[in-house]
Input
Amino acid sequence: MNGVRVAWLLIASLAGHAQAADLAPEFWDRPRSAQAVMAQPQIRQAVAVLQSRSDARLLIVHGTRQEAQLQAEELRAWLVALAVENTRLQLRSDPAAAMIRLEIAD
Output
């Protein structure tokens, strides 16, 4: 996909290892549908990891700007519509976040 950079990182945390990926800003430049959301490699991989680990949750990390919060809420709504349990999704504001970041956490 044009302009999409997949950047999976392993981040050591107290609870183990968390996986994280940033969504490219270009994702928000085009209309979204269920198919478009799941076509994003970062989202598809995060959902696959989440489904494979019953104790994990998906953090949707966003910046403090209103636009970033709205994007995070929209992404959560799409994931719930695609049958991801709302209780396993969490929004988290991070002033340092330049784009939406997905993190798998225990």
User: Anything to note?
Assistant: The longest helix spans residues 66-81. Residues 1-17 have pLDDT under 50 and may be disordered. The longest strand covers residues 16-22. Residues 7 and 34 are 22 Å apart (CA to CA).
